[in-house]
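Step 1: inspect the first sequence and its tokens.
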Amino acid sequence: MKPEQKIGIASTAIGLAAGAVSAILGSEMLAVGAGAAGYAATFFLSKTFDDSKKIKWVLTNSMPSFFLVWLTSWIIVFNVVG
């Protein structure tokens, strides 16, 4: 499996988990903090999968997928649980 595929799968999995945690926390500030912590975890995890990638590549390729998955899972879990 290519490092880019591993980064995408990790970003999706962490985004789903961070979205669920964000919905359960209740406070908007804590929810955004959970999302930021999840992205930081994705960022550092992606650097371990492929250390040759520059920071700009990691930010532009993993951030949109993480953000969309995190936001979608946050909204879905918030509406189902709430």
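Step 2: inspect the second sequence and its tokens, then contrast the two.
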Amino acid sequence: EVWSKKPEFLKHLDFTKLKKQSNAEQEVVDLQIKTFAYWKTMTKRLVDYVQIISRANLSKELIDRLKPAFLEAVEGAGDLKALMVPDESLGRERRALTSRIQKLKRASVLLQDAECKNGCSFTGERMAKRFRSGDLQ
């Protein structure tokens, strides 16, 4: 169905007449077809480039307007580092939880090592070796 329709630029052409034309006349028609195709592509590119340039210029303008407002907000906030530091109680709790996790890992290794002495697989012994080497500390 797509190929049954002639393109817009070929509707006025009669191919039976083209076969009767000389080589020079056929070259002129070929040149017209190529020129039309180039023009069609060029206009699409031009529209695309206008959109890209417009978007870039508008984005730059928006950034130029917003940048001072952001800088003013940051400078007015005071010491950002002090604002972003977590509460001391959260820091203590985080350190306590980290310590507890390490102790639980050590206890798990010791339990698995004790089970291995009673005849289990070598997995516990491998973990105990990793603990002793410092991988699980």
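Step 3: confirm your contrast with the notes below.
Helices lie at 15-20, 23-76, 80-84, 88-117, 123-133. The chain has a mean pLDDT of 79.
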